[in-house]
User: Fold these one by one.
Assistant:
Number 1:
Amino acid sequence: PQLVRLADYRPSDFLIDTVDLDVNLDPHATRVTARLKVRPNPEGRENAALALDGDELKLVSVAIDGAELEADAIEVSPERLSIANPPRGPFELTIVTKIDPTANTRLMGLYRSNASYTTQCEAEGFRRITYFLDRPDVLAVYTTRIEGPTDETPLLLSNGNLMETGPAGRGRSYAVWHDPHPKPSYLFALVAGDLAKVSDTFVTLSGRTVAVEVFVEHGKEDRAPYALDAIKRSMRWDEEVFGREYDLDVFMVVAVSHFNMGAMENKGLNVFNDKYVLASPETATDGDYANIEAIIAHEYFHNWTGNRITCRDWFQLCLKEGLTVFRDQEFTSDTRSRPVKRIQDVRALRAAQFAEDSGPLAHPVRPQAYAEINNFYTPTVYEKGAEVIRMLKVLIGPEAFKAGMDLYFDRHDGQACTIEQFIACFAEVSGRDLGQFMLWYHQAGTPEVTIRTAYDAAAKTFTVTAAQRVPATPGQPTKQPAVVPMVTGLVGPDGADMPLVIAGAPAGPVFALTEAETTLVFEQVPVRPAASLFRNFSAPVKLSTDLTDDDLLFLAKSDSDPFNRWQAGQTVALRNLVARVDAQRAGAPAPEEPRLAEAVARAFDPSETDHAFAAQVAALPSEGDVAREIGEDVDPDAIHAARAALKLDLARRLAGPLAAAFERLVDEGPYSPDAASASRRALKISALDYLAAGGAPDGVARAKALYDGATNMTDRIMALQVLSLSASDARDAALADFHDRYKSDPLLIDKWFLIQASAPLPDTLDRVRALMTTPAFDIRNPNRVRSLVGAFGSGNPTQFNRADGLGYAFVAEVARELNGTNPQVAARLLGAFKTWRALEPVRRGKAEAALRAVAAAPGLSPDVGDIVRRALG
Ligand code: B3K
Ligand code: ZN
């Protein structure tokens, strides 16, 4: 396969200053006329040919300055339009193409679903609309005229501000949009259809009134207000925290039902998967509300980090994505609970990014080469990319960080930039050499930090020795030590932080580990402290320490850092789970850790008022967490059994307090999605989950009662989730009831799919296969595929990893089926295999066989081919 390499970057030979698009909509024969003002790039090669990108395009005609080009002046294929001798000065290039939006099942470029038209252009979808210099460093001002049948597409939207609209004759209408901000083609968007508008206004910091509009299917208007409000809150927050104001007259969000991902930040016209817009108490869970808020914020924040300042090339993807994730995390932290948000983000980082980083798909935050860019929209680029920025802030401090951001916005507004340009802003304002810091962008793999501690009672010193090692990853056999900020506290027996003194002077709390081994000798330490290391998860590393369970249980109670209070309990639980897995595989009795019950009991104590934090404390490490801790020769069944046994053990020890908590936390009054109410429900469900552990009849009865009496979707789905973990009549009855109630709502059927696909039960695979044949399933709709097949592959460790290999074969089979129609979704499904090499030999063999079968299939798309090739490494 052809690799694109960062090292081969060179500026475009031509620039495009303006784009005048005329899109004449037709279900099968949409005609696109692009009038481009082109000029040679002074930084490009002289006398170069003009080579435009295409993808499955049909050229109708091409003209320069009004004169149509003869066939011998051009070279044309569906993938390329090349003009050997274009004028050496500015010229106007007019290209007419014809496309079939109905046949576009890849959902890239312009596609039609449910009678409306939508575009998706990132990363390389604009070339499926017209031949273009489809690269992010070519910035143009777009004017777009759309014309379509008035009955089918009364609504015609594109980027920027609406200039004109009216009838176009023969039952058709048109609209003209103009976006004054130069942008790369990946931010172009067009939407046409018959949708309802829910709108509001926002007055910016400088007093401009902006229209804020959310478009949804008719009849779903009552599910739009939460997203609308989230937009306004995001706008305000970006003004207050980053000093960034919105820059057009209108900001639009359109909810669509067929979408390959979560959402897309097209300039002024964000397109969203309807799953991340639509919410009402009866249809959305607390988790849905939180996701909507975060994704609305994320896409809105892209307006500055991504759109105003964009990426020079796709290797710089983390420049916009890591930074924008960092910004949305901060928004949520300010809006909800900061410590709980941090815990949730770290859980997600470990589950997705650490897993990726430890397997064959590991790659640097800024990759060096790719075969298919769509496969690099990964947790590494996004979530680790955000961690890198968070570390930068810890290392240089919040004031310098803010000054660096301001400088970045100031200096690079309107440009297509690199990571080096971004980092240079922070180096400049802080006066720091960030050379070593750049390794976070270059080196793949999760650094492993090992801590040894020693207390010298006579000398009153406490020594912390930190060794770091970055493991080898594909293509990177050897690594250098990174700069790892370790935020540290020494907690005394009274629970208070001791002053940190090194070499006679106050020190810390941020210690930058820059060598393979770093030793810190803390002085004037009157008694042996418990070391609280990497507070607030100050670096994305895998930590192992010589702290005892006693130390950890003490920190779980007393650490002033909430993250480490949570982490300490998790570490004790994880140690116990690993010991249980070992014992089980050795046929030995399960090792118990009764003190864990004390820690969990605190979460359910009436005196605990931070319910969201308590719910995090109560939640055991996931099966994936245990698998990663074990690292190799992983047996998912043993892990599941060990975790179920620990849960049951805790449930038995805490039966009284759990039941009391469940009753105390029952909702009163009408549903509200606010953080405090959601937290209460989260803790309530956590209690219920324990109460029903092992299928305990009393717990199952409570879950059934909660399900039957639910007045909101959170209670209903959570009760169903609890019921679905074990085979029972109550489970089957509730599943049947849920289907009957919500069968007309695809987003709710997705929840129903997901719950069944994630159940750790031996008949799950058969059930998933059967569900795929029902009318509710539609392989052309990515949400359906993700809820059923994606959830099975990535959310069901025991059944995907069935010892007979049928789980692997199933996911591989669906990926092959989708390979031709929607390669992006197909490639995503195969992400389920990202840790296959860590499995025990039998499963490893079966997983490999399934991957090899895909690799050997004819006609693999670049997306699927790239993933299987790398997965097989
Ligand atoms: N930038 C888009 C993702 C595009 C994915 C293209 N395969 C959404 C986001 O990150 O905000
Ligand atoms: Zn993004």
Number 2:
Amino acid sequence: MLLLTIESSCDETAAAVVRDGRKVLSSIVASQVKDHAVYGGVVPEIASRKHLETIPVVIDEALHTASVSLENIEGIAVTRGPGLAGALLVGVAVAKAIAFARRLPIVGVNHIEGHIAAILLEREVAFPYVALAVSGGHTHLYRVDGIGRYTILGQTRDDAAGEAFDKVAKLLGLPYPGGVEIDRLAAGGDPRRISFPRPLLHDGSFNFSFSGLKTAVLNHVRKNPPQGDEQYLRDLCASFQAAACDVLVAKTLLAAETEGIGRVVVAGGVACNSSLRAEMAREAAARGIDLAIPSPSLCGDNAAMLAVPGDFYLSRGITDGLSLDATAVWPLDTIKRGEAA
Ligand code: ATP
Ligand code: MG
Ligand code: FE
């Protein structure tokens, strides 16, 4: 099927045209980062308004880049949740309007389901696999037995990893969004200079906790302010990043070993982090685990990733119809659609 997919769950307005859930003909992402930067974080009301302004342009561009018109589109997949309610509503309303006007089947896709399936746009990964969804709102480990068949293995008890990166960046006075900035500065820093805690590292669970680590950085910085010492700032970033990555890597690989699964997928915005990618690759190789991480453009928010589950559902006749509604909270393991297929 030729799908048009639409994503508006947070601060990226995105649309894509994808054939058969695998071949990306276009993937357009309009970031609102500049609109929120002055506030140091995403402002929900501004996000909704920006989506409204941008979404027609982004959809037109996705169709144009793919050299197709709406007449060629055979189905629509849209992010239904989780995310900001007002932001999600824009994408869902536009998707429903197109579906109604063109009499197309439509399916609402879970944003995290899109993140952990994005890798299938680049390579095959046999089921089952263990997926780490690590982003601005999630740090969750799942067992993935197929599209629509997810079991939660563990999750963060407090902050998501991306949230911790962004909060630590903020307290270090770095520009928003902070994750990328920490990654950049850490590249020239010594990860062993400051020994930050590795929360829950040895508790045997697959859960995470990042708020204590963030507080540890805050306490350290209060006692030892960077005061323009560039190298110390780099060492701080590298030391924080190493603590966060150590836990993410250890828990993910432990989950794979405990489940007896030799395949691991890392997905979501924080999967762009160079240290996480390198450490995960090194440790997975040492354990003989097949590791798959999407290219950075498919780790951050995009609409192409929705086509993998979207095509799977639509091509099996699983649709939502025009009663589809956005939902801010939608735990991935409550989806049981794959079993019906
Ligand atoms: P969710 O997917 O949980 O709904 P979201 O969609 O807002 O949340 P993403 O867009 O998937 O999250 O990821 C954004 C997060 O990724 C931000 O917290 C950002 O700081 C972080 N991030 C992006 N690049 C990097 C990087 N190189 N290093 C660390 N963190 C990064
Ligand atoms: Mg975002
Ligand atoms: Fe996301």
Number 3:
Amino acid sequence: MNPVPSTTADVPAAREARVGEAQRRRARDLLAQRDAVLVAHYYVDAELQDLALETGGCVADSLEMARFGRDHPARTLVVAGVRFMGETAKILSPDKRVLMPDLEATCSLDLGCRAEDFARFCDRHPDRAVVVYANTSAAVKARADWMVTSSCALPIVADLKARGRRILWAPDRHLGRYIQEQTGADMLLWDATCVVHDEFKGIELELMRHEHPRAKVLVHPESPSSVIAQADRVGSTTALLRAVTEMEADEFIVATDAGLFHRMQQMAPGKTLMEAPTSGAGATCKSCAHCPWMAMNSLSKLEQCLQGRGPVIELDDDVIRRARTCIDRMLDFVATHPGSITPAPGGFVPNLGAA
Ligand code: 13P
Ligand code: SF4
């Protein structure tokens, strides 16, 4: 017999919970029937992250998502994230079917770097090594010498500099400037930003730090330099997650997408996490620090895409071949310099409760 709800307000909540559980069960069954694995980013809905871990998939940053998808034996990869992540999965596993809950889920960095404009930029500087961030289209990657993610951009650019190379960088200008400052490399920067990280405010962060003097500040390097300058740790989503589990502090101010808080709180349940400010106290319009495109992924869309076996990522064979070179270079570098990146807490594939 079903338990009787204690108030009338509990009735819709209880119904919602039952619908959610039924949906999760159907999604679990469909993943198994379709020989599919769920590859999720830390910024998607908490229920998708939990489902990925419960079903043997992964919740990870963009570098780990790429490696996990490439190495997993499943014939179908379901990428819960944004389009460039699905495209990277397809480029690395052209024989697998790559599904996404919503193909419209894109990224402001990808939108801000059109392949034709980028090709003209490269044509003007043929002597430079072309390094692109993962957050770009397959067509842009097809023109690059190197792809990097926030996990490995620093050591790769430092290595290129040590070999005397000058660099053409695209598209995130904050990350580009941070790498330039850290490595001293000669870098020409494209001018695009992330709509989420660009909103964090240095002056407001200073005030918040005064109110919480014991809090450590964790910053994703897509944030403005005034925010990065105040960080106790700068790093990829995985590096920030690791910082929360490893650092002695009990309080953290976190400048990255709010979606990461779910996994952070699971890995470090006793710690207090605060969102870094995106505006002053009196502001009438305030960014929610959550990527609108990551938010397009939902359990219902996941179920629909597994049921209908689509939408599916399709790429031209020639683009796959040309884009693959720069991704393979990055993966080979990471494999041969294992100490240069921060591994996820609990190992390559994060496990629930493995802190
Ligand atoms: P990560 O490589 O750290 O996962 O970053 C991807 C991203 O889109 C951050 O906004
Ligand atoms: Fe792109 Fe920013 Fe969204 Fe990451 S958070 S996918 S960089 S828009």
Number 4:
Amino acid sequence: MRASVTPEDDRPVIAVANRLPLHRGEDGWELAPGGLVTALRPVMAAHPGAWVGWDGGTKGMPTTLPDSRVSLLPIALSAAQVRDYYRGFANATMWPLLHNAIEKPRFERSWWNAYQEVNRVFADRAQAAADEHPDAITWVHDYHLMMVPQLIRNQRPEAPIGFFLHVPWPSPDIYARLPWREQILWGLLGADVVAFHTDDYRYNFLRSCVRQLADSGLEVRGSGVVLPDGRTVTTATAPISIDAGEFASFAAEPEVKDGIAALEDQFAGRVLLLGADRLDYTKGIIERLLAVEMLLERDPEMRTSVAFLQLAVPSRDDVREYRQLRGIVEQHVGRINGRFTQPGSDVPVHYLYRGLSPQQLAAYYAAADVLLVTPLIDGMNLVCKEYVTVQQAAGGSGALVLSEFTGAAVELPQAVLCNPFDVEGLSYRIEQAIALKPDARRKALAAMAEQVRVHDVHAWVSGQLTLIAARGAAAAGNRR
Ligand code: ADP
Ligand code: G6P
């Protein structure tokens, strides 16, 4: 389901991302979790080329992405590299730093050294892939690989290179805490295009460039950064999305319909509130649980008329902050159920700690009356886009409670917007969503689903590849 077709649609793409889109699950090779893979997988399936990524420590990765012309080029990391580059610098330094330092970023020189080393490995592998596809666009993704654009640029001055950041860029004040702040910026500025989900993140990036690099002679002109050597790097705002056609089609699949019927049966007579996230401290899961607890405290009738179901995908559980979060979430679930389960009645809070297939997830989306998306900060958030798409396709009238600190809130203002830091306020927002009249729910849902349908991931990728190709050609032309 393409929104538009451009000359770039069949150009080879070398995607460079920390993760390959497959990992080995209990039933064999499955899609890896997280928004990056959700967004990129259908897009890459439409292009020839290659995907360079870490093999996640599993051997025997398929050599191509199923149903595609994309070679999977696995990178094996040593145990020390996984510890220092992935768990350390990527997930305990850059992830919290870029998410407004809501957990304290940890700064370790040995992690930084490993980050540079692994970025070199990815850059070399991407260049070997580009040798096979001389016309390819190289498209680098996310906070794990911010040195890669410049490493490739050093070797291939004329290559079209794009970079997309899937997470926020914080205010220049927060970014400035990073001991290696200049190096990371120079790394990114090796690209022709550096793109973000929202204007706010893009402006923050431009302000960081000025604050950290102005002494070098670099200048910001409009949305471009003019480097001391005269090359211009374009910045762009390009909110990522989902394959809306694919998600909508799930609603009609027999397996999904059976799943919906089973859930409707299980939660008959209750309003079903749903949360679905990677178990991550950015997602506001604790605030959500506390808000549900307040609701049950305030209104005893809700203890039997409402159920809250939290789906949590295990994530980064060998990073300290994530392990601790799991323990805290499970304590809260236990306490709330201990306090509010009525004799002879089902528990008010249900908690599943596991990954699900997109079809299983779609059944939960279709069955839920209200989706709670309450991150303290989230670059975009695709779960809410999936929810409105499936609800609309299934003929539902679900309501969305959406944190104003997500990239998605810019695009979906018809949601019941909330500030998850204000837990009491959040509990009233949930109440408000439950009480919305069917007409108001349907109107909001239709508008949100339409926004996602029109601005789907195919439109996003066409726009990004066209821009990278154009800016790359212009920069190469200027050098000649
Ligand atoms: P992030 O990229 O931070 O994980 P997003 O909301 O952008 O957040 O993307 C999360 C992705 O994970 C979505 O595509 C969603 O379908 C998927 N997901 C959410 N919950 C589960 C689950 N329990 N099992 C498998 N995938 C899930
Ligand atoms: C977010 C990040 C992705 C990452 C995903 C899953 O979506 O932006 O880059 O792949 O989380 O996290 P993991 O650490 O398991 O790759």
